[in-house]
Amino acid sequence: MKFLSKPLYRPFYLISIALLILFSSIGISIHNTMAAPTEADILVDVNSGSDTSDCGTEGQPCASIQYAVNAADSGQTIRVAAGTYTYNAAADSCSSVIGMTAVVCFGNKQLTLLGGFTGSNWYEANPETNITIIDGQNNERGFLVHQGEADPSYSLTMDGFTIQNGYATASNFAYGGGLYAGNHTTINLTRMIFKNNRAVGANTATDQGGTASGGGLALISANLVTLNDVKFDGNQAIGGSGVNWGGFGQGGGIFTSRSTLTGNNVTLVGNLAQGGSSNGNATENADAQGGGAAFHRDSVITLTNISVTDNQAIGGDTPNGSAGGAFGGGLYAEAAERVEITDALIQNNVAQGGDGKNPAKGGSLSFGGGIGTTNSTLILERAWVIGNQSLGGDGDGFTGSGNGGGASLVRTTGNSFINIDNSVFANNNAFMGSGTILGGGGGGIYVRGIDATISHTTIAQNQIGSFMQGEAMVLLVSASSPSIINLQHSIIAQHTTISNAYALHIQPGNTLNLHQGLFDNNNNNTNNEGTITGLATMIEGNSRFISPGTPHFDYHISPDSDAVNMATDSSITDDIDTDSRDGSPDIGADEYHPPTITHLNGYSTSVNTVQVTWIPSHMVDLDYYELVITCPPGGGSPDGYACNSPINTGSNTSIEFTGLTNFMKYNANVTAYDASGGVIAVKSADFTPTDIFVYLPNIQR
After folding, report:
1. CATH of domain 602-687
2. Sign, CA torsion 612/613/617/623
3. What is the DSSP secondary-structure string of 45-86?
4. For the whole model, what pTM was predicted?
5. What is the pLDDT, as a whole number, of residue 436?
């Protein structure tokens, strides 16, 4: 999407283009290889190998990963060719020791597993082409790590695998259908896919159904787990049904408890956490927590460049009593020590409370369509929280309330705090289910008992249902703990769905401290029940977003926005796109910069042939580019194009021209237009075709 491209990938893109131009201009050919396998490496190929005592060489690879793991000494590397690897009962070394099975079981060693090879090439790993699959076949867990000793040298490194169709079940706690790692674990995972794995709590005929945690990945007391370029797609944590109490479903993609997790370029898409069903006679409910990921007790989480989309947390249903709640459709943290998220897209996630049929109790509540926290410290920076939903369950009696369409931030005990900078909460919804009205609120953000600082954040076009509170944000007291929110240099805009609702609803006993913000076209900005300070520092104006709402969700501001240059005392140095804020910063998540075209270059790729490329900056309202080639006197025109005639390149920023005359100076002129035909930016540069190239030999290492 347009708004995701700049904050996450622009620096790498610039470097890549610069290197491409350099290498193309001097004719260097690069051949990317890996080191040759050593005698200590063990090679595995399911297609041509066999599990024998002398397997593991190029001439005779092993057939199963488990056999190779069993044979490996600590410190060795196992290279695995493309193919599908399933459970090998003959090589199972876990079931007799810890009573659990997996396609691959590992413990008390330091090993490196590399996937993505072919049986004829053990030098180059390409996991995208040479797909290497660990498949539980919906019957076995994919991977099990059980470091029984607290030896810091023990670790697992994996690169280039897909773990799919893993299945873990238990009558009490089912952990990690894809990968389960227990005590003393250090793991590094790179270029991995966790797909369609399930942790399933058992259905029981007794009081409580089994709890399921971590459909894709479950970490319990892990020392340090690092994820780089890892995707969790379609994993599920499903609580079992019970007579009185359904089991919890926690972390459809990831579950952590007392663990440290660091991730970069992590994708969570289409995962599900679901509570089990029951008669509902117990005091506990079958809650669902963290459709994408759930971070529990004392976990320390640091995630950068993450995408959390289309995940669901669905509470369990009950014919009698209160149904299960839903907490965090995308992400949920409970009693986590610290969760820090930077550069994130959190979109189209749903927290759905369960349905309850007892007229005296009813449907259950939901908290946090995008993000939910309970007694956890959250640091959120440069996040787009867009189009998430918190939906209360239906009830024959009371309806379940929906709270915090974008985020629900709750503290009932302890000293947790919240800090949110440079973020957008927009087009999120909080709605009640059907039944007798109970309430709820916070279309954008729901706050209860929290101390929070929210800076340079745009909160726009969020919605609540009738008889609910706070289209943008609602503040409530939790037990005896009030909410105290410092909301500064932020935009509260375009909350117009409910005529008598307030954008910012502050219940008695809570405090909202406003500073240098912008109110834009809300039906009602604030109520007068709680304590509100700083109203005199707020301005009423027009945000003039580029393209708010469906389908673009573009909350960058235009040059004539009333937010420009109005955050005069802000000390935050960058914005949601990592662009620098100038000496007079703008209110809201975005700092306006005029669009420009940079790095316009023409470089020869072969005789009489030139590739023209350019890099846009702040091109948020682009419709198309127009390129004009000016030819020198006596110079040939490009094949298929005329000199001095506009060429519409659409959104493409590169075009190749053939048939040019070598050693003559041409000119390229690029103009960017918006949808109305207005000129956004112009750039011109000269280039000269050549037939002189220098080729260096391939470098093999």
Report:
1. 2.60.40.10
2. positive
3. -TTT----TT--SSSS-BS-HHHHHHHPPTT-EEEEESEEE-
4. 0.88
5. 63
